[in-house]
């Protein structure tokens, strides 16, 4: 069977990969469309869709067809994330390794944020997630996706992996979802085939080693390193595991899987490290490789950071913003310029440490600015999981009105009985803020993320 479109040497290079079935692989790329799947936000409950479950992810569902997510207000409310099914396996690994002890997790290569929202779903409020993206222009999409998801225990950073090497032994879990040659996405994005070459695979391999070496000191002894790519190349996968085991003291972790899931369990040549391969045709999802290793050495620890307390006057101001949050006493309140922010109290020290070494782009939840004793609420607050909805007005919108709101258009046929800041909700889920005035509504949906397309379909 021939496969038009695959780059020269691609199939021959794959022929040695564990579990590779040439005919099955070509057929999956010729005849089957990439399945559409979503993952529900466990903290913003909506009725599950009618499609089948993703076998390795309790919150993952395949959809029978691909709807227009842009025109679904619940998507903008952060009730679900559109994610390729294989990627959800990272959540399965996390569930296997994570105990009850509070953990600090780092998602090093995080934009656009699919795996960050996945990790976030598996964490409790006393766990911390740091989601980092090196490329500045990709940070906004990451912060937007995490804002929609709503956690208050998350910090977004914009740093090079080597900046993390100073955070010695800080993290219990590090995910490196590495930039790679991208062959696993060929079915979804056939244009990616034009970028593929053996030389690029080698370049990616070198970059992957560099990223891993840079971040390694930030992992605690006995902490877990999860490594993943969307490449099929042994050079970027099993060979990287061997390189890791040659270079550092790591133990490979076997992850329980069920044979009917269709995932191929592989072993690296030299160290017999376990890896998990996803081939379209064998699994209902795109190409992925994932592995988990445990650090068995101490490469240094952070000295304790002394936290500089804020001045007393600020605490008085903080009392004005507290009523806007649920569980207000379990949060730590701080100011960045004029804005008040909150993060779970247990992360106060971590925040101080991270702010010394990294560029923080989003920390916990931005509550808003005070104008006298009144709060000008921030969009992050509206979408957050910690908002006290009873503190402000709420205006429930029809689907048509919600789309108008999300476009920043005029909202038609809305009867206004109140005055002031109102949460605009759809099916009870906040979308953002508007200010209700006697004869008009001021729409405060952020213009950068408004719906731009005019027509559905
Ligand atoms: C596979 S994508 C991450 C996808 C993301 N984890 C998700 O699930 O949505 C790899 C990311 O690594 C970033 N990246 C590129 N070069 C990098 C480098 N040298 N060090 C760290 N990250 C890099 C890319 O900008 C990209 O966002």
Automatic annotation (TrEMBL):
It comes from the Bacteria. The active site is at 230 (nucleophile). Keywords: Cytoplasm, Methyltransferase, RNA-binding, S-adenosyl-L-methionine, Transferase. GO terms for biological process: RNA methylation. S-adenosyl-L-methionine binds at residues 109-115, 133, 160, 177. PROSITE patterns: SAM_MT_RSMB_NOP (PS51686). Gene3D superfamilies: 2.30.130.60, Sun protein, domain 3 (3.30.70.1170), Vaccinia Virus protein VP39 (3.40.50.150). It holds the Pfam family Methyltr_RsmF_N. Residues 1-296 form the SAM-dependent MTase RsmB/NOP-type domain. GO terms for molecular function: RNA binding; RNA methyltransferase activity. Belongs to the class I-like SAM-binding methyltransferase superfamily. RsmB/NOP family. This is RNA methyltransferase.
């Amino acid at each position: 069977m021939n496969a038009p479109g695959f780059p020269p040497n691609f199939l021959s290079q794959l022929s040695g990969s564990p579990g590779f079935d040439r005919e099955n692989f070509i057929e999956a790329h010729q005849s089957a469309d990439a399945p559409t799947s979503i993952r529900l936000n466990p903290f913003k409950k909506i009725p599950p869709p009618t499609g089948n479950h993703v076998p390795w992810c309790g919150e993952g569902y395949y959809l029978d067809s691909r709807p227009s997510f842009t025109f679904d207000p619940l998507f903008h409310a952060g009730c679900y994330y559109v994610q390729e099914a294989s990627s959800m396996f990272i959540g399965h690994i996390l569930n296997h390794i994570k105990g009850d002890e509070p953990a600090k997790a780092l998602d090093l290569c995080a934009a656009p944020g699919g795996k960050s929202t996945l990790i976030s779903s598996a964490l409790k409020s006393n766990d911390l997630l740091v989601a980092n993206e090196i490329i500045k222009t990709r940070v906004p999409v990451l912060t937007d996706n995490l804002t929609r998801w709503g956690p208050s225990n998350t910090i977004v950073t914009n740093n090079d992996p080597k900046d993390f090497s100073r955070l010695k032994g800080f993290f219990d879990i590090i995910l490196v979802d590495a930039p790679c040659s991208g062959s696993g996405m060929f079915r979804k994005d056939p244009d990616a085939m034009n970028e593929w070459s053996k030389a690029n695979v080698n370049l990616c391999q070198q970059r992957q080693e560099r990223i891993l070496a840079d971040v390694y000191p930030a992992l605690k002894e006995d902490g877990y390193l999860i490594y993943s790519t969307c490449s099929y190349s042994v050079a970027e996968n099993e060979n990287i595991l061997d390189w890791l085991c040659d270079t550092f003291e790591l133990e490979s972790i076997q992850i329980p899987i069920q044979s009917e899931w269709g995932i191929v369990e592989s072993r690296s040549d030299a160290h017999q490290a376990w890896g998990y391969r996803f081939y379209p045709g064998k699994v209902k999802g795109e190409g992925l490789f994932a592995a988990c290793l445990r650090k068995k050495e101490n490469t240094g620890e952070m000295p304790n950071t002394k936290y500089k307390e804020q001045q007393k006057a600020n605490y008085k101001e903080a009392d004005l913003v507290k009523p806007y949050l649920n569980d207000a006493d379990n949060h730590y309140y701080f100011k960045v310029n004029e804005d008040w922010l909150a993060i779970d109290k247990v992360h106060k020290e971590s925040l101080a440490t991270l702010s010394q070494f990294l560029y923080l782009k989003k920390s916990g939840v931005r509550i808003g600015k005070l104008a006298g004793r009144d709060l000008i609420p921030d969009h992050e607050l509206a979408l957050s999981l910690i908002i006290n909805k009873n503190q402000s007005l709420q205006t429930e919108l029809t689907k048509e009105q919600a789309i108008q709101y999300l476009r920043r258009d005029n909202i038609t046929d809305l009867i206004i009985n109140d005055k002031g800041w109102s949460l605009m909700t759809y099916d009870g889920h906040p979308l953002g803020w508007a200010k209700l005035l006697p004869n008009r509504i001021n729409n405060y949906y952020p213009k950068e993320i408004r719906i731009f397309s005019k027509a559905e379909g």
